Amino acid sequence: MNVLWVFAHPEPRSLGGALRDDGLRTLRELGHDVRESDLYAMKWNPVVDAGDFGAEAGDERLVVGATSARAYAGGELSPDIVAEHEKLAWADAVVVQFPLWWYGMPAILKGWFDRVFVKGFGYGRTLRYGDGVLAGKRAMVVLSAGARKPALGPRGINGPLNDILFPLHHGTLFYAGMSVLPPVAIYGADRVSPKQFAESRDLLRTRLHTLDTAKPIPFRTQNGGDYDDDLVLHPAHAPGATGLAIHLG
């Protein structure tokens, strides 16, 4: 299997960096081919602007969705975006690794998605939520969080981790068509003992062993008949319920 590892941490000597190194080594030992996008090492530009779209941007008001679609179709995207598209097209699975900052991804990683998942490649009007160019590929998030596990649990002050990751899991990866696996989360990352590091390393190794077989999160597809023309869940599904969990089949 071809695996792309997208890494967003400014310190390669961090806990995240150590887990990334061991994870890449594990994948290679399992016989997988691996490529990496180490965003800080690449000095990735996270800011969308007209320079991303070449001649297609023109001098008129920039409409990012429409302009990016034309640039993608016309081969006018900037070379750094094209290079990431080539990696994603090659990959059967994508591992996205980052520290959880302010309930989300570091800005550099958010900017990677903003610039790389352009219209026509990452999504289309109907090619979204389970369909699209990236359908058939798998994705798994690996994250480190400073909070302890109970604080990211169902009654924890930070809110449930699955809810925090919903914008990335459902609104980005699944939106672009990918099958999203349950995340690998390392809690209390600022105070991990050698024993806890070994446990975290072993957890990641175990999950990488099943990267190609694990069951994905069962999100409902947009075009599978569960939603009406306004993309609202039909009353027959999860009747009377609201919240993020209703989008699980």
From TrEMBL:
One of its GO terms (molecular function) is oxidoreductase activity. Keywords: Oxidoreductase. Its EC number is 1.-.-.-. It is an enzyme of class 1 (oxidoreductase). Pfam families: Flavodoxin_2. Signal peptide: none annotated. InterPro entries: Flavodoxin_fold, Flavoprotein-like_sf, NAD(P)H_dehydrogenase_qn. Residues 1-201 form the Flavodoxin-like fold domain. It comes from the Bacteria. Belongs to the NAD(P)H dehydrogenase (quinone) family. This is NAD(P)H-dependent oxidoreductase. It comes from Amycolatopsis heterodermiae.
